[in-house]
Write a structure and sequence with these properties.
The complex is a heterodimer of chains A (271) and B (173).
Chain A (H helix, E strand, L loop, with lengths): L3 E6 L7 H14 L4 E5 L7 H5 L9 H5 L5 H4 L1 E2 L6 E4 L12 H14 L2 E5 L6 H8 L3 E6 L3 H15 L6 E9 L1 H5 L6 H8 L3 E6 L3 H8 L10 H13 L15 H16 L1
Parallel strand pairs in A: 1-5, 1-6, 2-4, 2-5, 6-7, 7-8
Antiparallel strand pairs in A: 3-4
Helix pairs in contact in A: 1-11, 5-6
Chain B lengths: L1 H43 L3 H16 L2 E3 L5 E7 L2 E7 L2 E4 L2 H25 L5 H20 L3 H22 L1
Antiparallel strand pairs in B: 1-4, 2-3
Helix pairs in contact in B: 3-4, 4-5
Classes of the chains: A alpha/beta (271), B alpha+beta (173).
Chain lengths: 271, 173
């Protein structure tokens, strides 16, 4: 079997690359796929925290490259899902500890045993980025509807287009705030898609649940009621080739609408 | 009096309401438009300074053939159907006649050699491109002196030239 290698990148930091990685990975594994996530952010690793695996890491990607352990030994299994594995980044080394060739080689090996290899890319466009994209043939570009994030995403898209082995890239728009979009104080999903003229793979609404789920070390897709969790679930289904319609974020979420919904719910129950 | 105040109040409130609405609806559009412009610059590597340099050179080139409003000549980077384009708007007054054009072009040829010599003495460190530009500028200045003899225009040109020199000095320095 040959799995798909997908890099999750953004250019700008803090837009939700690692959160996206943890959630898409978890969602794919929940659907029965074999998934491995590689954290390539050497020196600033965080994917282990989001998955709640920080205490289980024995070996890192640098140990694999420097042959202190076998690749399989370095893979950490998820607590809940045995289909989900993590190859952690080294916290004490810098980006030069692993080369493009080495990462490419690791991706090729993992492709044989897993359906999906998700590569978590560091922020920036320097060597760390070049390393992360080296082994990937698909990319998810994470951005938010803010000017600086969109500008950086445009830069990243330019770099991805210049890369021969990159078959396709898709856009994931994170932290959308429907009320601000409605009051014309935030660019809409359509605006961002038009400006970047790219294909969309997901729209994630701003959700305070992300903070609590990070606190617990449990990706928000495990909470099926949360808006962001649902949205990430949809992204995973789209990656697997399903045709899932995009969430309507324009839906009225004001107080009046909630009251209406509550009463219509009551009336419904009485019947 | 009372009525007057009442109407003034209502008027102000109505105007205030619309102004507020106008401002509120704009921040997203402001962001989108600023982003469009900055992305065009990023993608093409054409920045405002380069546009201004090209604009000045175009003015110089076109004044050989045209009489026009130099300050109103606009050169803008725009996007049309995903294709970047430089849009040039030339406010023409009239075309110069053959004699005028002829006169300017021969003056120009004479001027160039002198100008290059002067320049190479003064600024050896300048790159070749910049030297050429500089020489063209000087040549145009001399033309303007001869052709129109208009003091104001000369001063304008000279200050522009100074600016350019300061800019290029900054670059080399």
């Amino acid at each position: 079997m040959t799995g798909r290698v997908i890099v999750i990148t953004s250019g700008k930091g803090g837009v939700g690359k690692t959160t996206t990685n943890a959630n898409i990975g978890t969602a794919l594994a929940k659907s029965g796929k074999k998934v491995v996530m590689i954290d390539t952010d050497l020196g600033l690793r965080n994917l282990d925290l989001l998955l709640g695996l920080e205490n289980r890491i024995v070996y890192t990607i640098v140990d694999v490259v420097e042959e202190r352990c076998k690749l399989k030994q370095a893979l950490v299994k998820d607590k809940k899902n045995p289909h989900l594995c993590l190859l952690a980044a080294a916290q004490t080394r810098d980006k030069s500890a692993v080369t493009e060739e080495q990462l490419k080689d690791i991706c090729e090996q993992l492709q044989k045993d897993f359906d999906y290899v998700l590569v978590d890319c560091p922020a920036g466009i320097e060597q760390g980025f070049q390393n992360a994209v080296a082994g990937a043939s698909e990319a998810i570009v994470v951005t938010t509807p803010e000017m600086s994030a969109v500008r950086d995403a445009d830069r990243i898209i330019g770099l991805l287009e210049a890369k021969e082995d990159m078959k396709s890239y898709k856009l994931l728009i994170n932290r959308v705030r429907p009320s601000l979009v409605k009051s014309n104080d935030m660019m809409s999903v359509d605006d961002v898609v038009e400006i970047l003229s790219s294909e969309l793979v997901g729209i994630i609404p701003e959700d305070t649940g992300i903070i609590t789920s990070t606190n617990k070390g449990e990706p928000i897709v495990n909470d099926e009621k949360s808006p962001a969790g649902k949205a990430y679930q949809n992204v995973a289904r789209r990656i697997m080739g399903e045709d899932v319609p995009f969430m309507d974020l324009e839906e009225d979420t004001g107080v009046v609408a909630k009251v209406k919904k509550f009463f219509s719910g009551l009336v419904g129950k009485e019947k | 009096m009372r009525d007057n105040n009442f109407f003034a109040d209502v008027y102000n409130k109505v105007i205030g309401f619309f102004r507020q609405a106008e401002q509120e609806s704009h921040t997203k559009d402001v962001a989108r438009n600023r982003l469009r412009v900055v992305l065009m610059q990023d993608r093409t590597n054409i920045n405002p300074a380069l546009l201004e340099r090209m604009r000045k050179d175009l003015v110089k080139l076109l004044t050989k053939y045209l009489e026009m409003d130099n300050e109103a000549l606009e050169l803008n980077l725009e996007e049309d159907d995903g294709q970047m384009a430089l849009m040039l708007s030339i406010p023409v007054i009239r075309a110069k006649d053959e004699d005028e054009i002829e006169e300017e072009s021969c003056h120009c040829e004479e001027g160039t050699d002198e100008a290059i010599q002067e320049n190479s003495d003064e600024e050896i460190d300048e790159r070749e491109e910049e030297l050429e530009e500089e020489s063209e500028e000087q040549c145009l200045c001399s033309e303007l002196e001869c052709v129109c003899g208009d003091e104001e225009a000369d001063q304008l040109k000279l200050t522009e030239e100074k600016e350019e020199k300061i800019k290029s000095n900054k670059k080399t320095g």
